[in-house]
Q: What sequence folds into this?
């Protein structure tokens, strides 16, 4: 009741600021009182955003799903193979701040639609690239990353505006479930289409059709303008008054601020900084696992004599199918478990969110290390421990985003998400696929070419991920020291 009273009081104070602004000649938005809660519309919007997120991550993991075929087709070393995902991620992270800036100031539906159309078109075009144009293929992956950045940056802020804090974690969990589901479907779709057609290029011709459907749904079902909720809107919502207003970001700000001022404020937010570094460690691990794990499993099976070396035109994609299934199952279970644990433990401990993230990172690091060590002798145990490692990584997806949304003021959320994307990918999965490939190349160069060292080089380079995961857990522990103060500051 005290918190509600404070919000109402803040609403009145900000209302006076709006009145003063109007007296000085600034136009305020026209608002109308809606008698009915548009819950159905909000659910449809979330459904469309989730479908787009599914396609986004299917596109992201098509290349790892048919990595053996692509590596053989373009005759690539491990280092050059890892460069494909690194270029994608670099372009993704560099574009994110731009879309964060645009998303805080302009119509988000138009930006989402343009990004969806762009990346679907480029994906379709990349399916026609021939063997002699490897550089153009690399460029196409970078352009797809730019289109994907528009979606990942803006879609969560729309969900944040549609739902209050209690429901927001649940809805974000549903939205982020489509990260592992889309990733797993990317592996399975790519492997399945390549196997059924005998040509891996066809794997890049399915998602553009899905993208076209998502664009149509976006146009038909998502409102052209979605109101941004500031303290005024949340306070009036608590009192039973629901506002409908045109999306005019500058009007909702009590004072206009520059992008640099927004960034400066975020850098001083210790919870935001530490949780972003924890997410960076997560991104490093997931980026390396996503790119190299099917190939690592294949090399482990070759060493054990379970499968023969790939000499034919279409390589065995069974590991991509299995790993895709593991990613989907553990992702759904992990995100649901993380959201439920956060919901229950917050009632007992205000620091529950970062502590959940820290614990899951430490357990994930241990599971991944064991999986690597037993890979040469027992492939079944490797699959089991990889599944547990991915499960505990997935626990954090929705929880980390929810931390950002309640320690950062609403008018800076798109910028904050964009900066988090930039940092987590710059220091995380932008470099980890390429770094793992370079380490593997370096180790192979020191020994005579053999199937044994082809496996061991990947095994030793992968061990880096387990140590990075431990550092990620440490950053989430640091977050727990600052989160209460930063949350109160954001509410003020």
A:
């Amino acid at each position: 009741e005290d918190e509600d009273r404070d919000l109402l009081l803040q609403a009145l104070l900000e209302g006076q600021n709006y009145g003063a602004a109007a007296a000085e000649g600034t136009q305020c938005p026209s608002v109308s009182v809606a008698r009915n809660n548009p819950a159905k519309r909000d659910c449809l919007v979330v459904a469309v955003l989730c479908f787009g997120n599914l396609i986004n991550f299917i596109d992201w993991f098509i290349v790892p799903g048919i990595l053996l075929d692509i590596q053989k087709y373009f005759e690539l070393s491990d280092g050059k193979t890892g460069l494909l995902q690194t270029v994608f991620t670099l372009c993704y992270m560099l574009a994110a701040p731009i879309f964060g800036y645009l998303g805080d100031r302009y119509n988000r539906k138009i930006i989402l639609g343009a990004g969806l159309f762009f990346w679907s078109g480029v994906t379709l075009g990349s399916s026609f690239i021939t063997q002699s144009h490897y550089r153009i293929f690399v460029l196409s992956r970078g352009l797809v990353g730019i289109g994907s950045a528009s979606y990942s940056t803006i879609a969560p802020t729309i969900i944040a505006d549609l739902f209050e804090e209690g429901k927001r974690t649940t809805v974000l969990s549903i939205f982020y479930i489509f990260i592992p589901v889309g990733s797993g479907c990317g592996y399975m779709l790519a492997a399945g289409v390549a196997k059924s057609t005998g040509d891996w290029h066809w794997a890049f011709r399915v998602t553009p059709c899905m993208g076209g459907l998502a664009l149509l749904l976006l146009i038909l079902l998502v409102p052209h303008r979605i109101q941004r909720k500031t303290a005024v809107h949340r306070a009036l919502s608590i009192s039973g008054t629901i506002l409908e207003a045109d999306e005019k970001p500058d009007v909702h700000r009590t004072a206009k601020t520059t992008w640099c001022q927004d960034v400066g404020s975020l850098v001083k937010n210790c919870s935001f900084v530490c949780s972003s570094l924890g997410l960076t460690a997560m991104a490093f691990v997931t980026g390396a696992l996503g790119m190299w794990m099917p190939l690592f499993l294949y090399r482990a099976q070759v060493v054990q004599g379970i499968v023969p070396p790939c000499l034919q035109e279409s390589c065995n994609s069974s590991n991509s199918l299995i790993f895709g299934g593991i990613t989907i199952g553990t992702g759904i279970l992990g995100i649901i478990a993380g959201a439920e644990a956060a919901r229950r433990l917050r009632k007992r401990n205000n620091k529950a969110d970062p502590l959940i993230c820290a614990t899951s990172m430490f357990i994930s690091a241990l599971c991944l290390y064991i999986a690597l060590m037993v890979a040469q002798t027992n492939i079944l145990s490797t699959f089991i421990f990889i599944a547990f490692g991915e499960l505990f990584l997935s626990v954090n997806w929705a929880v980390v985003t929810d931390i950002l949304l309640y320690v950062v003021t609403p008018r800076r959320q798109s910028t904050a998400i964009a900066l988090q994307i930039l940092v987590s990918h710059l220091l995380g999965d932008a470099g980890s696929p390429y770094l793992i490939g370079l380490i593997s190349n370096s180790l192979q160069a020191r020994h005579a070419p053999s199937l044994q060292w082809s496996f061991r080089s990947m095994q030793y380079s992968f061990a880096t991920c387990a140590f990075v995961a431990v550092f990620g857990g440490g950053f989430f522990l640091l977050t727990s020291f600052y989160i209460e103060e930063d949350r109160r500051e954001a509410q003020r």
Residues 65 and 388 are 21 Å apart (CA to CA).
